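Fold sample X.
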Amino acid sequence: MLPDIDKLSLAEQVAQMVVVRASGFLFDHQIQYPVWEPPAATLQHWVQDLGVGGVILLGASAGELAIRTQQLQNWAKVPLLIAADIEEGVGQRFGGATWFPPPMALSAIFRKDQKLALDYAQQMGAITAQEALAIGINWVLAPVVDVNNNPDNPVINVRAFGETLDEVSQLACAFIRGAKTHPVLTTAKHFPGHGDTAVDSHLDLPLIPHSTDRLTEVELPPFACAIASGVDTVMTAHLLIPSWDAELPATLSHKILTGQLRQKLGFSGLITTDALVMGAIANRYGASVAPVMAVEAGADILLMPVDPQEAINGVCTAVESGRISRSRIRESVERIWQAKSKFHQPVSPTNFIESTAQNDALNTTVEILQHSQIIHGSALSLDKLIKTIKLNNKSALALRNLIVVDDLFLCDFLNKLAPAMTLPAQMGYETQIIDCHTQAISNLEQNHPTLLQMFIRGNPFRSSAGLTKAAEDLFKKLLTTDDLQAFVLYGSPYVLQQFIPLLKADIPGIFSYGQMPAAQDCALRTLFGM
């Protein structure tokens, strides 16, 4: 039951507007990002004593998370919003659950068969919501409704549903329709559109130079569509948009959040900031300043403030000084109460295991992968590859499975049991991995027929530009020595476009939007004719 808002103190009301980051793991020694994820005692203090309104989680298995979310709710006096960035399904963040290909994979299908793509998007939304609820997540931070019309975008990239507003609008709204078949909150992000940027807002503040007409024609329609489809929350973008506000980023701009989103688009749901610890905001505004400015702008949820206690104190001080009215705080808390009243489901570790989505989810994942795969080279080339493998298995030449990834220690899709390792091994290949911790490619031995597997996509905090250049140099070296036998690229279609001009016609290859084990299995079985 939600308490009477009037019985909460000002500090308790403001605390309900704060959502903090925490590890999904149960024990302190498992914390992976100590800068952002507090130890258990601190987290319990924030939830139990400060009364923060929600927690965003990352890491752990789905089964562990069911225990974690139950623990958090037991600490809280007011039911918590439990959020996760699960744009590619629950398995993207929590092991054992369904991990779908990135949303852009659906745009490849959409261009061939719109009805099929929309059906897949709706299934993704429904399965994501069902699995989220089963482990205690009630707030899905998806879908991304940015139109990724800039190939150099380092942070959105394949997270978007496509490059055109039609693709993005239709597919994102189908995802929302699917998710709404279960009592979870959905989120359209990142308002007013992070697609046409070449700067990662996790690191710095991107600038959108477009006119109001251009924003109205391209960036805003997917948000309008999402709002019409009943999306519960809209997440702000840390962007500077001079045509709307020459001084303040969207997250801190009253002209943008209230003027554009509330008044012009008529959105009446929750407005949440993107994470306030991101460089675009944290590097420019203080721990207690940014939260106050975000509330003034029109935000209801302060996501991941640098210091939760300072954020609460800062907003309370602004209210007590008359800078922010008490009615403004109450408006946000009322929206939060309205959102929290939509869900109540007991959680147990067996909920997820008993979820009826599992078999259908696996089939849906594989079908999407198969329909969105791009195959290069002819059937003759594939036949030639198989014959070459058989020939080389009988010769003295060692077959090499060369895997390129940015940082092996940060890869949750590669281990000794990953298909990228095991399937080539069955064919007689020996695995070699190149990442930021390994030797330069100049030391690469020659005269080894090579299957090259490259994992390259845009990732927050990790630009793919350096990795792409290193992979391109390696690609050229293998072509020069005639060692390149076949290749698989997992990740960004924009990277693929850089490699195609270099490719010889008789070398077969596969492109997959997904990088997870199911994508590896699907791509390699296609390549090897398994």
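Fold sample Y, listed below.
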Amino acid sequence: MSYSFFPVTFALPLIFVPLAHAGQSHEHDKNNDHGHEKQHHQAQEHGHEHDHIEKITVQATRSGRIADEQPIRVELINREEIEEKAAMRPGNISMLVAETGGVRVQTTSPALGSANIRLQGLYGRYTQLLADGLPLYGNQAASIGLLQIPPTDLGRVEIIKGSASSLYGGSALGGVINLVSRTPGDKSTGEMLINLTTADGQDVTTYLESPLTDSLKGSLTAGAHRQSGQDIDSDGWLDLAEYERYTVRPRLFWQGDEGQTLYATSGFMTEQRDGGNAHDGTVADGSFFKQSQDSQRIDGGLVFDMPISDELTFNARASAMVQTHTHGYGHAFDDDQHESYLLESSIAGYSEHSDWVVGLAYQADIFASDTYSEFDYSYQVPGVFAQLDYEHADSLTTSYSARVDEHSEYGTQFSPRVSLLYRPGDLTIRGSYGQGYFAPTPFVEAVDAAGLSRLEPIGHLKAEQAETASVDVTYTFDSIETSLTLFSSTVDNATVLQAVASDNTGALNRVRLVNAEGQSKIRGSEALLRYYWHDVKLTASYLYLDATERAPNGQGTRAIALTPKYSAGFVAMWEQHGNFRAGFEAYYTGSQRLNDNPYIEKSSPYWHLGLMGEITVGRFSWFINLENLLDVKQTDEHPLLLPAQAPSGQWTTDIWSRNDGFIANAGVRIKFGG
């Protein structure tokens, strides 16, 4: 649960990163980008910022401009908010992003609890998840990966909505979430967090940072997380999957005498996760159905920057990730391996009124299965990209970006984007339009729940294409902040699962992956109102989504499943920094169309209420968090288990609400050193 979760709205040019390491704070950037001092001075002269809004250089950019001076909108979750959410959900980042306007964490596997991130109604597979600008979790991050990333060492989170294919390639058709690491200071410090839940869950995370030499600093994050299986509604099916997970991630930060910087990281994660039937449970045919996944991930990456002259900077970055899985779906088993690689170099420069970057990139995405080798693929994607930001006047800036990829399977793909920033006085207006693509793989959302055993071999598919547009208006007056965003997306060739018969009986007991006919159209708006009064912050938000797709057999259109048309939130936070914080939150989720649910065709609206408190005494911060005060459970509306196995092999309905009921957690954060 989070209480100051609605992020301050800044602007971000959508680019590949490495002018400066994505984890470095803006205080350390003056040697990384020779244009930074000029732009920082310009931002001070403009003076449009409200006193309580921090000026931040978003490090997922090349230009080094102050974030609020950039044409592309980005939403930031800062370190203070991350600390709040880490106290509520120390084991993963799902809560960290779920409570941001326009962001929905969608459960994809009711058995294992896996989930992905949907931005403004677009499919979760279109969201690129980055760590310090590097795809350390894969070009198409597995849904379970969202639950395996602890927030302990994050300095902030940057969320970009809308097509980012112009500079991040095909994996960012719907947007980007960049997890920016904490930058070590000049003293050795650290913290440990211990957390216990009423659902028999335990978390222990540690973070250490220290200067190693005059020019080298390092940090180390490690965590151990455990959850016992919980059948909350006593239906014989685990509502909380059982898991045991261990993670470790070291980082190094080096800065040379001539302005060079090098950031390097590696990570290791291992997890054993089990779900499905409880020990005494069965599915509709009387059999015991267990679902399991054992995972190991090893990754590494680096970002290097070197000034060439007063106006030019050379940038290079690289990453590699290998993740192995052992899956169990009832009697079906599979061992598989996912790999992703990135190599990139670019040159960035600036003049009095412009910033530009040109570069070359190579990405690879590889999958291999021991049991279902017919689904193996190896995508090789070289590309070239460019961006130009031009400041026409103090109040008007435009950004143009484009990328050409030569995809080994889907051919040449061109992805442009244009953005505009207009700031007359205290009013800020941004507009953006972009096009992008996504290379289909077997791993659509439904496959997370059932695996590959019932999927027909994939035939000819077209690349998924989308165009997105948005207009954002922000106004700040005294202690009140307001924001209104209008957005739209149109998707062509979306890949979907289609039930088919495997024999002459006509029984639908298999599925195949096809390009959907017609277009998926998403139109919507976000509204945000924030009010500051002394130590109290009140935030209200509203999201409207009109998301439609072509109905089967060409019978008009229908709402996209699991996409609520209306949702809203209210958060009240009272905090005295370093002493205490207390918060209340209320979220409303409207009704949703449901896919292949034999019990109901449309879900009921529901509320989520929460309370939290934290008090700090010296180096100890004691916290307690109460989640889902109304004890909302989807199984109060209808059974989770299906009366017959679905053609995909799934034994449950989709998750459209909560299935964990009321849960409380409490613990302590201990800071040391410094």
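Sample Y note: The CA atoms of residues 427 and 475 lie 5 Å apart.
Also: The chain has one domain: 8-673.
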